[in-house]
């Protein structure tokens, strides 16, 4: 792992120290790493959303569309309920 030193004004350092204490981070480095990860996630999500917005409509979002979504959720729930909690055991069908 590489090391990076950064300079912060006192007000920002105080804020980081406060967040470390209040949010359960072990060190200020953990807090900064988490901020960077969240920023990366935000940028990935933004890119995906923009790609989706530019792709156009896939079809009408009418009552039939929403009913098909509900059916998919019901099917997924049934599949999850049928799985055994024992690893390696066959699911109940």
TrEMBL record:
Gene3D superfamilies found in the cross-reference section: Antitoxin ParD1-like (6.10.10.120)
Q: Does the keyword Iron-sulfur apply?
A: no
Reading the lineage from the top rank, the first entry is Bacteria
Name the SUPFAM superfamilies on file.
Ribbon-helix-helix (SSF47598)
Q: Name one Pfam family in it.
A: ParD_antitoxin
Q: Does the keyword Transmembrane apply?
A: no
- Which key words are in the record? Toxin-antitoxin system
Please state what the protein is called: Antitoxin ParD4
Q: What is the lineage of its organism?
A: Bacteria, Pseudomonadati, Pseudomonadota, Betaproteobacteria, Burkholderiales
